[in-house]
Amino acid sequence: MAGTDEDAVAAADDALYVLTAVLLTPAKFPSVLGDDYPEACAALGLAPLADGYGLVLGQDGDGARWTVVIDDVSLVAVAIASWDCGMEYELSPDERTVVAALPGWPLAVAVAAPDVPAPHDPGPEADDRPPLTPPDTSAWGPAQRRLGADEIALQWATWREQVDDAAFPQPGTAATPGDGGEAADGPDGAGENGPAGHSGIRRVLAEARTYIDTPPPLGRVRSSFAPGDARTLRADGPGWSLVARTDDIAFVLLDEEPGEVLPVGRGPELPGLLAALDKMAVRPS
User: Fold this and answer.
1) What's the order of all strands across the beta sheet hosting 221-225?
2) H or E element at residue 245
3) pTM (2 d.p.)
C-alpha cells in the first residue's frame, strides 16, 4: 500500500457515500468470491471470523470506489432488511467497527453517489493494491457458475416451470435414477439435451454425498427459506454448483459446460441426499 492500512481506512471513511451493503457470513456471502466462506474471506484478505463481516460499498468525495469491511454484522443486516422492505435506512458504521478499507468493488453496483465524480478506482497515491473488480460476465468460469446458481435460487419458480417432469427417467427404466433430463436455458441462453447418465451430474451427486460424512469447509452447503415446509439448498464444490428445493428437484451447473443448467429428477435417491445435506447445512441466524 501507499502508506499504512490506517491511512486507507481513513481515506475511505472520509465522506464515504454508501451505495449498498452485503453480508459476508458463513450462511450468506457473495458467491462470486468463492465456493465457501473461508475462500470468500481469503479473496478479500480477511480471517474467516465465526460471526462474519459486513461489506459496505460506496464512493469517497472524489468518486473513488471503496469496499469498507466492518465487524458490526447486525448493523448491515438491519440496513439490508430495511432496504428490502422499501424503507430508508442511513448506514453509518462507527469507525471503531471498521476492519479494513479495500479499493474497488467486488460486485457490480448499478447506482452512483450524486454530486461526486463518476465511480472510478482509487489511484495508487491512495492505495497501490489492485482494486477489487466484479467478474467478467462475458466469460464463463467459477464466479459466473456461482452467479448462475444464485439466479436459479432467487428465481426458482421461473426456472422450475421450464422443466418437464416427463423428461426424467422413471424408476424401473434402464437409465440411472437422478439423471439429468432436458437442459434448461442457461444464464447465457444456451440449452441442450442432457444425456441420460450425465457423467457431470453423477460426479456432483457423488461429491455432495461425501459432504455428509466428511463436512466440507464452512459455507459449502447452505440452507435458506423456501415456501411451505421446504428449504432452498445450495451446495458448491470444485467446478460445480447445486441448487435444490428439499421437496422438489435440483439444478446443477458445471464449469466445463458454459451456460448449461442441468435438472436432476428426484428419483429414489435425491430426496434422502437433500435431507441429509439440509441437516448439516449452515443456516442464517
Assistant:
1) 221-225, 231-237, 240-245, 250-254, 262-264
2) strand 240-245
3) 0.84
